[in-house]
Design brief:
Elements (H helix, E strand, L loop, with lengths): L1 H5 L6 H11 L3 E2 L7 H6 L3 E6 L10 E7 L2 E7 L3 H15 L20 E4 L10 E4 L1 E7 L2 E6 L3 H12 L6
Parallel strand pairs: 1-7
Antiparallel strand pairs: 2-3, 3-4, 4-8, 5-6, 7-8
C-alpha cells in the first residue's frame, strides 16, 4: 500500500491527500465504544495516563503509550460525535507540521510527549527546533488517536497498524 501512495502521479498535493484518505481513512465509526482495555488487548503498551482531562471537555480519559516502537496519544470520549466535534478541534492544534508543541500549548498535560527535536541539516547538536511528534490523527469510534509520524502519510500508517487490530469486535 505504501508503494501505491509513493508512486508517481500528477504531483498535486490534492491527489496525494485523496490517496492517503483512501488508504488510511481519517474517520471510522461502527458504533462501538472502546476503552483502554481494548487497546491493551491488542498489544498497546501504556506509558502513562494523563490526569488533567477536565481542561479539554468532553474528553473522558487520555493515555500515552507505544505499539511497535511508535508513540501514540489516545483520547477517549463518550461517543463518536464528541470525538468528531471538540475532540477534532483539540487534536488539530497539536498535530501536523503546524502543531503547537511549545510555548502557549493548549493543554500542558503530556505536552513534552507530543514533541520531537528536529534539527535542520548543518545545525549544531545543541540546537533544537521542536515539532509535533504526531503528523496527524484519526477518529476511530469514540477515540482520537494521535500517532507518531513525520507527515500525514506516516502518521496515518502508524494509526492503522494499531487500530486495524480493533476492527473485529
Amino acid at each position: 500500500m505504501i508503494l501505491a501512495c509513493s508512486g508517481s502521479g500528477n504531483g498535486s498535493s490534492g491527489n496525494m491527500e485523496d490517496i492517503i484518505e483512501t488508504a488510511f481513512p481519517k474517520t471510522s465509526n461502527s458504533g462501538r465504544i472502546l476503552s483502554i482495555d481494548d487497546l491493551k488487548t491488542v498489544g498497546f503498551k501504556v506509558r502513562k495516563q494523563y490526569k488533567e482531562v477536565d481542561f479539554l471537555p468532553p474528553l473522558n480519559e487520555s493515555w500515552h503509550g507505544m505499539f511497535n516502537k511508535m508513540d501514540y496519544e489516545i483520547r477517549f470520549y463518550s461517543s463518536h460525535e464528541d470525538a468528531s466535534g471538540q475532540g477534532v478541534v483539540d487534536a488539530e492544534i497539536v498535530t501536523g507540521k503546524d502543531g503547537i508543541v511549545t510555548g502557549d500549548v493548549p493543554w500542558e498535560d503530556g505536552a513534552k510527549d507530543r514533541r520531537r527535536c528536529s534539527r535542520p541539516p548543518g545545525q549544531p547538536h545543541s540546537g533544537c527546533n521542536y515539532t509535533s511528534k504526531y503528523g496527524d490523527f484519526v477518529i476511530y469510534e469514540n477515540v482520537i488517536a494521535m500517532c507518531e509520524g513525520k507527515d500525514k502519510l506516516e502518521s496515518r500508517e502508524t494509526c492503522s497498524s494499531l487500530l486495524s487490530l480493533l476492527s473485529t469486535p
